[in-house]
Write a structure and sequence with these properties.
mainly alpha
Length: about 90
Protein backbone atom coordinates (compact mmCIF):
# COMPACT_ATOMS: atom_id res chain seq x y z
CA UNK A 1 0.00 0.00 0.00
CA UNK A 2 1.43 3.38 -1.00
CA UNK A 3 2.11 5.96 1.67
CA UNK A 4 0.39 9.30 1.13
CA UNK A 5 2.50 12.41 1.06
CA UNK A 6 1.39 15.46 2.98
CA UNK A 7 -0.69 17.79 0.85
CA UNK A 8 -1.89 15.13 -1.58
CA UNK A 9 -5.48 15.51 -2.70
CA UNK A 10 -8.02 12.87 -1.74
CA UNK A 11 -8.15 11.47 -5.29
CA UNK A 12 -4.37 11.17 -5.50
CA UNK A 13 -3.51 14.34 -7.41
CA UNK A 14 -1.53 17.26 -6.04
CA UNK A 15 -2.21 20.84 -6.95
CA UNK A 16 0.72 22.50 -8.67
CA UNK A 17 2.38 25.09 -6.44
CA UNK A 18 0.02 24.46 -3.53
CA UNK A 19 1.33 24.64 0.00
CA UNK A 20 1.41 21.27 1.76
CA UNK A 21 -1.73 21.10 3.89
CA UNK A 22 -2.91 18.94 6.72
CA UNK A 23 -3.66 15.46 5.26
CA UNK A 24 -7.41 15.64 5.89
CA UNK A 25 -7.90 19.36 5.19
CA UNK A 26 -9.22 18.98 1.65
CA UNK A 27 -11.49 16.13 2.71
CA UNK A 28 -12.94 18.24 5.53
CA UNK A 29 -13.34 21.21 3.17
CA UNK A 30 -15.37 19.05 0.79
CA UNK A 31 -17.56 17.93 3.70
CA UNK A 32 -18.13 21.53 4.74
CA UNK A 33 -19.04 22.50 1.17
CA UNK A 34 -21.64 19.74 1.12
CA UNK A 35 -20.41 18.53 -2.25
CA UNK A 36 -20.68 14.84 -1.43
CA UNK A 37 -20.21 13.72 -5.05
CA UNK A 38 -16.65 15.14 -4.95
CA UNK A 39 -16.04 13.97 -1.40
CA UNK A 40 -13.99 10.90 -2.33
CA UNK A 41 -12.52 12.18 -5.58
CA UNK A 42 -13.24 11.28 -9.20
CA UNK A 43 -11.37 7.95 -9.30
CA UNK A 44 -13.04 6.43 -6.25
CA UNK A 45 -16.45 7.81 -7.27
CA UNK A 46 -16.14 6.07 -10.65
CA UNK A 47 -15.28 2.77 -8.97
CA UNK A 48 -18.29 3.08 -6.65
CA UNK A 49 -20.59 3.84 -9.60
CA UNK A 50 -19.31 0.83 -11.53
CA UNK A 51 -19.79 -1.43 -8.52
CA UNK A 52 -23.34 -0.15 -8.02
CA UNK A 53 -24.37 -0.60 -11.66
CA UNK A 54 -26.89 -3.37 -12.20
CA UNK A 55 -25.30 -6.48 -13.68
CA UNK A 56 -26.14 -7.01 -17.32
CA UNK A 57 -26.15 -9.99 -19.61
CA UNK A 58 -24.29 -8.31 -22.47
CA UNK A 59 -21.14 -10.43 -22.17
CA UNK A 60 -23.09 -13.66 -21.71
CA UNK A 61 -25.34 -12.97 -24.70
CA UNK A 62 -22.34 -12.06 -26.85
CA UNK A 63 -20.58 -15.33 -26.01
CA UNK A 64 -23.82 -17.24 -26.60
CA UNK A 65 -24.00 -15.72 -30.09
CA UNK A 66 -20.41 -16.71 -30.86
CA UNK A 67 -20.91 -20.29 -29.67
CA UNK A 68 -24.23 -20.64 -31.48
CA UNK A 69 -22.70 -19.31 -34.71
CA UNK A 70 -19.88 -21.82 -34.43
CA UNK A 71 -22.37 -24.62 -33.73
CA UNK A 72 -24.40 -23.63 -36.79
CA UNK A 73 -21.29 -23.69 -38.98
CA UNK A 74 -19.95 -27.02 -37.67
CA UNK A 75 -23.13 -29.08 -37.23
CA UNK A 76 -25.24 -30.22 -40.19
CA UNK A 77 -27.60 -32.62 -38.40
CA UNK A 78 -30.68 -30.69 -37.09
CA UNK A 79 -31.19 -33.13 -34.19
CA UNK A 80 -27.62 -32.71 -32.97
CA UNK A 81 -27.87 -28.95 -33.52
CA UNK A 82 -30.99 -28.76 -31.33
CA UNK A 83 -29.41 -31.01 -28.69
CA UNK A 84 -26.31 -28.81 -28.64
CA UNK A 85 -28.14 -25.48 -28.54
CA UNK A 86 -30.23 -26.14 -25.43
CA UNK A 87 -27.38 -26.75 -22.95
CA UNK A 88 -25.42 -23.82 -24.35
CA UNK A 89 -28.34 -21.43 -23.83
CA UNK A 90 -28.97 -22.83 -20.33
CA UNK A 91 -25.36 -22.34 -19.24
CA UNK A 92 -25.13 -18.83 -20.69
CA UNK A 93 -28.13 -17.50 -18.76
Amino acid sequence: MATRRRGAAVDGEERAGAEPAEPGAEFRARIEEGDYRRLLGASLSNVIQQAAAPPGLDDEIGMLRVVMARLLVEEDDPAKLAAGAAPIAHVAV
